[in-house]
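Checklist before submission:
- one chain only
- standard amino acids only
- sequence pasted in full

Submission:
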Amino acid sequence: MSPNRKKALAVVIAFLISVVAALVCGIAMSIMGHSGSESLAAGAGAWAVLMTLSVTVIALFDFKDDRTPSTPPNQPGAPTP
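Returned file contents:
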């Protein structure tokens, strides 16, 4: 898999986890008796913080290309057909 595809997959997984955490946070605020706008603000804040941290951590990793090359590289001194 290409490095860009690996990084995109990591960001999509982080996005989904952040959305679930934001929903849980918003629902928890709603259950505790806060207004809808306060619950929405808490969920949005949780999402923003988690996505920022996730993308920051993902950016620290160096994703490698694990695909095999389709043609072998030319070696110096080797005869060309």
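Reviewer check: The longest helix spans residues 3-31.
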